Amino acid sequence: MDTNKKGILTFYTLSAFYWFAFYSFGSTLATHAESLGLSESVIGLIVGSYGLAQVIFRIPVGILSDSFNKRRIFIGLGLFLCAVSCFGLGQAQGATGLLLFRTLSGVAVASYVVFPSYATNTLGGKDLHKVTGMLSALGQTGRVIALMAGSLLAMLVGSVWSFYVGAIAAVIGLILWFWIPRDPVRETKEKVSVKHLFSVIRDRNLLISSLLTIILQFNVFATIYSFIPIYARSLHMNDFSIGLLTASFTLSGIVSAILGFSVFKKKFGVRNTITASFILSGIVILLFPYTENITLLFVLQLLNGFFMGLLLPMLMAQALKTVNPERSAAAMGFYQAIYGIGMFSGPFIVGVIIENGNIKNGFFAVFIISIIGALATYIYKRSDMKNGLA
Prior knowledge:
Layout lengths: L2 H21 L5 H7 L4 H29 L2 H21 L3 H15 L5 H7 L6 H30 L2 H18 L16 H8 L2 H31 L4 H30 L1 H18 L6 H27 L7 H29 L2 H29 L3
Helix pairs in contact: 1-7, 1-8, 2-3, 2-10, 3-5, 3-10, 3-14, 4-5, 4-8, 6-7, 7-8, 7-11, 7-13, 10-11, 10-13, 10-14, 10-15, 11-12, 11-13, 12-13, 12-15, 14-15
């Protein structure tokens, strides 16, 4: 195997362990917090703090990595901080500790802004759609395995082990990091400046895709990683069953991530696929709190995962479509920082709604947000056609 192929294989393997580490406790964090006696709004704040940290840190990481061409170092730093946050979550005994280390995990995952640009600029990936699709598929694969392993450990030896296994995965990823290629030397380096950032965020595709992804992440983190597990627990499902339920969302997302560009993009177009996915996922979410049959709950979760799995790689590719390659990490930093707003606001807002009403009200709010996403995509499409930008 030549050096470049070996580097690509190592990097993609690292990517799978990276996402394993962040999602080994994806189905247990909310229920673990509930078992400590915390309210829905506090649980939403803890889960959502992961997104708030990304809003703050992802843009600086993107700009700095572009300016100094040091994307690889941010990958290693992210893995190290992830290991610390996972271990800290396992040790935390109350709201303060959980909030602190969940926030640290958001700081750690800010390093993901450099992954697509590292793959294209250092490893030679030329097809941006293919790179983002592969990273999405590998990320979802790592998440499925993580959710299964973490929930099984939670059932057998206690929920804290869903955090500890994440720390172990992060350490393995850090070991692999030593074997990925260094960033290529660039003769000139851009200075870090506000002008640099504004030159990136003026890109129309980047701005619209970022706003739409806020809605996607609002929905995902308000339901999949927050209140669907808690609802499932109210139906007397155990940790492993809840983990399987969460993993089924991710598993169907892997299928749709693979099929998105090869089938749906070619047959229906990117914007038609995005519009339909928002509508259908919203309808599925609306049905969740009215479903008490466990089998039907799994069916809804698979459908939800499929529709939402179409959205992220397409929106990510659209965001970077017309960005200068030398500023791709800064663009990805802006994109992921902006959608971190959805990661934070979704669990917190829906948690407040549920605490002051019921889970049906909370999921109805998510449905409304989904319809807004569909309408915004349709208006964006019409505007592009009118201006000859489609």
